[in-house]
Amino acid sequence: MHHIIVIGMNHKTAPVELRERLGADADNPRKALAWMRNLEVIREGFFLSTCNRVEALVVTDEIDAARGSVVSLMARLGRVRTDDLMPCLYVFEQMNAVRHIFKVASSLDSMVVGEPQILGQIKDAYGLATREKTSGVILNRLMHRAFHVAKRVRSETEICGSAVSISYAAVELARKIFHLLEGKKVLLLGAGEMAELAARHLLSHGVSSLMVANRTFERAVEVAGRFQATPVSFDEIGSILTHVDIVITSTASPNYVITRDEVKHCLRKRRNRPLFFIDIAVPRDVEPRVNDLGNVYLYDIDDLKGVVALNLAQRKEEAVKAGRIVEQEVGKFEKWLKTLAVVPTIVSLREKAESIIQAEYAKSRSALEPLSAAQHEAVETLIRSIVDKVLNDPIVFLKERSARPTVNTYLDLTKRLFQLNGVASEGEEKAGRGK
Length: 435
Hints:
alpha/beta; four-stranded antiparallel β-sheet
């Protein structure tokens, strides 16, 4: 019987120092697969390495030997003692392993639930496994079902639909105010990391231009270079407010950089066009009374945190729906996996039928010689149709009982009835080979 095992560590079980050691060498996944390929106890193998997780998935007939081999491999890759590694590892087997892979692919096991990057990383890891020829019947099916589960979760739930980072929450608010961001102009005031990230998100959503202001003009030039933006001086802020649509502030100033009077002064020239401030600075850069002005929208760091907290709560609710999808798909995969037990006997049954057709056709060749090519084809089609119909009932019978505890009794009876013992071993070898 084939067993599926997942052994790994993630952000919940292992410190970043240990995860870094296993992920330090970008070539480690290929090395791991090459090592798996040469091990007799591992029929199929997959290796995933990201900043937040390192996992090996293997298909084996020898659980204990395979488990020990994978742990030894990880210790070797990270250059750590096995005893130091073991407390940080989790191990899942059979349907628990399948459930885990489905949850990881659907981003239900990520540091930020619903983040989309992990699915692409899994696809890349699977692509490497196929190129390194460590994937087989079970792993191929499992990965494609994982991709299907992730697609279902994305399309049937809203788990990916809400911003859960400060920077992206700012963009989400901007989109609610302006509906479309195409053609909007942004002023980046200061050089904080979150402000820069928010600017990147805004640019990716179609804003047309970006200006960067900083107390030190050289720093403004440096940051502007990252975005192909225009550097401006602090003295120009008052006039620039007349033209921009979104202002992101992140300075280290102890006082307000933008005041209510300064904003009020520019509103007449703006002709009722909305002005959106995203103040990510602590202390705040924008005077709170700015929010009292018409067509002016001000959000500070606490407002954005509130949006993130609400969205995280919504994602948790959607994760419950996603969990139901995962359980449905685990059940389907388990049913398919159990059918593998009857595949060798079905293959042997078809092989025996084919050998009988060929033998009887050979005996009748002389009697069939007067027939035309079309008539020969019609006779062969008739024979195969009859054989397929005769075999259909026993094949369906075996598939329907593949999940029952008594399946081995049915398999043994089928082999005896059709005298498949000699052929079954050959069919089993063909159907069950993972490499």
